[in-house]
Amino acid sequence: MQKCAAEFSTEDCASLGFIKANLLCSSCDQLKDFSLDQLVEHCKECCHNDDSAPKEKKYARAILEVCTCKFPAYPQIQAFVKSDRPTKFPNLQIKYVRGLDPIIKLLDKDGIVKDTVAIEKWNTDSVEEFLNTHLEKEEDDDRRYLKTNQI
Q: How crowded is residue 104: how many other Cβ atoms within 10 Å of its Cβ?
């Protein structure tokens, strides 16, 4: 019998309660310590190998999408959006989408969505830490100014 190697999508993992972008396989092994053996198989389909995978995947841009009508249900996301924290990330866009629970879309340099992460259970610090970890750092303003004025 041949075994088929497949990997769950970001959405599949989210529906199982796993955040694929930051799930290390070593974390799956720890589930047994909490008598959660039945989750290990699905966890392994969503994780990244600790040693073989790059430590942190970086993305050129991110879009935080949320509906303002949902702010009462997600006060931590509202606090992040309304604070000065988003200004620390020039490559982050806040987009208001009617009826949408909060998500972060991660894009490559060509503007193509490469990953989507549900963030409804996150607090303001978690959002900021995630963006610090997964967003490429923008060049400082002087460098960008010089680049735009190149001949």
A: 23
